[in-house]
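[step 3/7] fold_predict: job queued, chain A
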Amino acid sequence: MQKLLSLIFVFLFIFLAASCKNENQEVNSLESVNTTNEEIQKSELNRAPKKALTPEGIAISKSIMSQIMNERDLKRFASLIVTAEMATQLTKDGGAYTVFGPSNTALDSLADKNNKFYSKQENLDKLIDLLKSHIVEGEHSKESLSESISKSGKLKLKTLSGTSLILTKADDKIIISDNKGMKVKVLKGGEKGSNGTSYVVDGVLTAN
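[step 4/7] structure written:
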């Protein structure tokens, strides 16, 4: 009988010890949660409020250059613009522009020797000339281009490099021809930005 009482006492001792341990864990867990919540609240209070964009900042975020950089099919074209140090011109300088940017695939299709040629620092002027042959002054939305072409069957635009572009339509698509007979098709684009608009074309127009 004494042995049985001893076993019961041991069992009760273990049970009470386990209960106390669980209670301590729950308290510690609750304290940890409260501490974490307090830290989060302090962090949120100490966080600096977001600054509102200035009118200039809004214009830059909606500029042609921003459009080009955010268009996945113009990543390579955007890189060339930065290399040619023309990004500022398409961000906030001067008046409105319309850009007919060659797609990544179009630039990849250039002969390897041409890609190497335009990547060299000593040929920077030639790269600038090539890029300017894809840019015209003034803002030309897709609707205005279509209307102008419909009136006379074609529209002539002068690029920043001095070349002329002839725009026509075929199967409801806008086709652009340059001085040397190169023809490219407008794939997409035409949304108005703060200083013009941009398009994606499926080929590379020639420079002077």
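[step 5/7] annotate
The longest helix spans residues 2-46.
The domain at 55-201 is CATH 2.30.180.10 (FAS1 domain).
exit 0
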